[in-house]
Structure formats: C-alpha cells, structure tokens
Amino acid sequence: MTRAWILPVLLVLGGSVVATSLALGGRPGSAVALLLMFVLIAGVNSPLVFPRSVGALEAQRRSEADGRPVVFWRPGCAYCLRLRIRLGRGARRLHWVDIWRDPAGAAAVRAAADGNETVPTVVVAGRPHVNPDPAWVREQLARST
C-alpha cells in the first residue's frame, strides 16, 4: 500500500470500529451515519478526488506544448484539496504531479520552496508559485487556453 492511501484506510477502519461500537450499543442509525461520514472524509482525502497524476518530466513536456500550468500536490494536503475543489471541473485541464509518487516532482518542489516540500506548488510558464490563490490559478488556466 502506498502512503497516499494510509490516511483514507485509517479513516475507514477507525470509522468502522466506532460505528460497530455504536451498533452494538443499540444505535444502528447513528452507526450508519457516522460510518458514511468517515467514508466521505476518507474519499475526499484519497487520490481519487484528484485528476490522474503524471510524472514531473511528462507534465513539464505537456505544459511546454499546451501552455497549461503544472500542479505539484500530495494526498492528504488540505491546501491541495482546497485548490482542487475551488478549480472545479477546470482542474482536469491542469497537469497534476503527485510528489509522493514522483521523486523528480518532489525535487522540483524542494527547489522552488527553499528545500521544503510545500504543496500545492503551481508552475506557470516555467515559474513556480507556492500555495497560490485558487482564483489566480483559474485565471492562469484561462489565459493558457
């Protein structure tokens, strides 16, 4: 199991344990509601919410060809999730790189963020921007199309 799935799996397992104790205590409605809440939170914190990731080199090549920004992210990052949600359907047009799966992506982020793996880092026209405002990213995406 990759570390991208550790938090979602722990959330589902923890929710299952608590829901089981509620169900055994005679509160099956609360158990179901709590389990659904934990599954929803696990889903939001999983890689499933984000568009398919590519490698850093492939994302850079594609960005040079079509002018679209590259987003470096990692699962479980609240700021990455905020960016993904605020971009809406437009997020699929960006090139996403999961720094936990791609060492070259992690190195690119460290180079942009003074040695830290601060995400989201968005690269527009070869220039990195660490944790930019989602409205600004949306504007950059509109300019690239």
Protein model, in words:
With 145 residues, this protein is an alpha+beta fold. It folds into 2 domains: 3-48; 51-144, Glutaredoxin (3-Layer(aba) Sandwich). 54% of the residues lie in helices and 11% in strands. It is built from 6 helices and 4 strands. Strands 2-1-3-4 form a 4-stranded mixed sheet. β1 (70-73), α4 and β2 (95-98) form a beta-alpha-beta unit. α1 packs antiparallel against α2 and α4 crosses α6 (134-144). The longest helix is centred in the N-terminal third of the chain and has 19 residues, at 6-24. The relative contact order is 0.14. The mean pLDDT is 91.
Tell me the structural class.
alpha+beta
**First CA to last CA: what distance?**
37 Å
- How many helices? The count is 6
Helix content estimate: 40-55%
Annotation, overall tally of beta strands: 4
What's the CATH C level of the largest domain?
A: Alpha Beta
- Gross geometry: elongated
InterPro entries: Glutaredoxin, Thioredoxin-like_sf
Protein name: Glutaredoxin domain-containing protein
Keywords: Membrane, Transmembrane, Transmembrane helix
List the helices and strands and how they pair.
Elements lengths: L5 H19 L3 H17 L11 H11 L3 E4 L4 H10 L7 E4 L4 H10 L8 E4 L2 E4 L3 H11 L1
Parallel strand pairs: 1-2
Antiparallel strand pairs: 1-3, 3-4
Q: How would you summarize what this structure contains?
A:
By secondary structure, this protein is an alpha+beta fold.
